[in-house]
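REQUEST FORM: STRUCTURE PREDICTION
Request ID: SP-0412
Submitted by: Lab K.M.
Chain count: 1
Length (residues): 175
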Amino acid sequence: MSWLTVETPLPSGPMHIAVTPQGVAAAGYGGRDDELPPCTDASKVSLVTERITAYLAGRSRELGLPIDWSRSSGPHRAVLQTLWREVPYGRTVTYGELAARSGVFEDVTEPGLAARTVGQMMAANPVALLVPCHRVVAADGIGGFGGGRVGIEVKRWLLTLEGVLEPTLDWNGPL
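STATUS: Completed
RESULT:
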């Protein structure tokens, strides 16, 4: 796994992306202080940078990057893949709806447990943005997002980009 940094207009700053021969294996918001092996494949760096930049500039609604699913497994992978396949650009789904769609929680009877578990799964999404956990919201509002206040601002920014939320006066994204 090797890493590259993509500058973004997001409130969190740059994204850090890990690539493997299979595709993008990790994507995260904000800085990394770790010493990570840099991606030296110029074509991969160019492709990932170009696609993420176009998406965040509003020029593309699809990232179209291959995903290396190896950092998730079992129910977590099933929920992430359901989100990736079934919730398109500009749409949202609640934590509970995603739990039901995934089929993973059919035997869970405790009220709210499936939705809370999906929330934890979204917080552990290894390929943020590519698997759009920002599109998963609470039944009564926007819900949470990793990274505290900055994380919520990233979620709001992405949902505004996709037309789910109206731009606010401080919106700095594409029009």
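NOTES: The beta strands are 2-6, 15-20, 23-29, 93-94, 136-137.
Reviewed by: T.R.
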